[in-house]
From TrEMBL:
Gene Ontology terms, MF aspect: phosphoglycolate phosphatase activity
A single GO BP: DNA repair
Pfam name, any one: HAD_2
NCBIfam families cross-referenced by the UniProt entry: HAD-SF-IA-v3
Species this protein is from: Acinetobacter halotolerans
Name this protein carries in UniProt: Haloacid dehalogenase
Protein origin, superkingdom: Bacteria
Classification lineage: Bacteria, Pseudomonadati, Pseudomonadota, Gammaproteobacteria, Moraxellales
GO cellular component entries: cytosol
Amino acid sequence: MSYSDLQRPIIMFDMDGTLLDLAFDDFIWNHCLPERHAQVHQCSLEQSQQTLFQFYHQHKHTLSWYSSAYWTAKVGVDVLQLQYEHRDKIQARIGCHQLLEQLTTQGYRCWLLTNADRAGLQLKLENIQLSPYFELMISSEELGHAKEDVEFWQKLQQLHPFDPARAVFIDDTVAVLKGAEDFGITQLFSILQPSSNKGVRVATEIPYPALDHLTELFDYLENSQVIDAKTA
Ligand SMILES: [Mg+2]
């Protein structure tokens, strides 16, 4: 890699709820899994919801939360299989491909950093064309820490050196953005409506600038301190 390549800003993206519509994941975890769990365990839907939502609450923001193998063992339902059954519902968020296309054309380096496990990442990549835009795609499962933890970012930097001052990171989860901020990334963006099935969040309640249409990122990049790829 040449010196000028290293000078280019890196745009780091979350996947679910940022580039892809979180409605799919909401549907799987809040609708399909309770139904299937009730069938498998011969209990009422209400009982399943109560059991599962209690598990969700306990494990949120941990690596286990993002592991389909963990959930399959824990609740006795093949969660990955369930996602494959409904894969036709996986959708990109509005502006996703337009943004990625323009960024790569303008010479920005793009990294995909997801808390989805490797199997979950594979499923999404099989259904939505994202791979061509990214020089790096990382599942937190590979690094052994969720993105919420500063250790994720330290490990990432050890394996793939980058300058936090020249990185931009976009993620719909505030706890994840906080982890990145603790590490030293300052140009952080959230997402106003991660799931098309849920309402738009109130921008003033999110402690980071929030994008609606993904291409709004260009307005920020033009005014930011990140050196333009074309002049670096
Ligand atoms: Mg997300």
